Amino acid sequence: MRKLLGLVSGGKDSLYALFLAYLHSFDVVALGTVRPKKGTLLFHEPNVDFVRIHAELLGLPLIEVRGWEDEALRELFCKAREDFGVNWVSVGALASDFQRLRFNWVAGDCGLRVYSPLWHLRPERYTRKIVEDGFRFMIVSAGVYELRDWVGREVGPENVEELIEVAREGRFHPAGEGGEYETFVTDAPFFPKRITVKGERKEGIYYIREVELVDKG
Length: 217
Prior knowledge:
- The chain has 217 residues and is an alpha/beta fold.
- It has helices at 12-23, 51-58, 69-84, 97-109, 123-132, 160-170, and strands spanning 3-7, 27-36, 62-67, 88-90, 113-115, 136-142, 154-155, 181-187, 193-202, 205-215.
- α3 crosses α4 (97-109).
């Protein structure tokens, strides 16, 4: 039995990897997230508190740990194995050897195998595909000048090509793999409801303050 922990941050890549795990018949038994210390290079930071909403929508328990990179990751993976019997973990790594090697190393220490279905997908094709498959996501931080006005803006079928074109002109990774932007997923094909958010933009980051679950239709 392939019992899987979904390592999620609230962003598009980790949740799309989880979506593919469902499609490939993994038995997803829990979600896990790390509340990192400031300055982490391994984890997504903005709005991680609201991963609980994704867990609620999927009807899954959420394991949360706090701490610094490898230590927190090891605590999370080993706890998931002990409490839920998982033997796999899904991750949303696209092109970062730093991320992929760290995830694989720590997972191996805890006796887990890593499912990383996004690894080395073509960036523009992937960015377009995730929207075609029914995902919507909000850009909640921007690390490049070209996306300064996109913070707080949702990306969907109506504007994904615009995002790809901005990335092409700015010569940065269209999926944000280099830290060009971070996201929060507001809808996905395996969510029974979509998420609407209220918040505020401050110092280049969109901070979510309230969420509401809305019927699709």
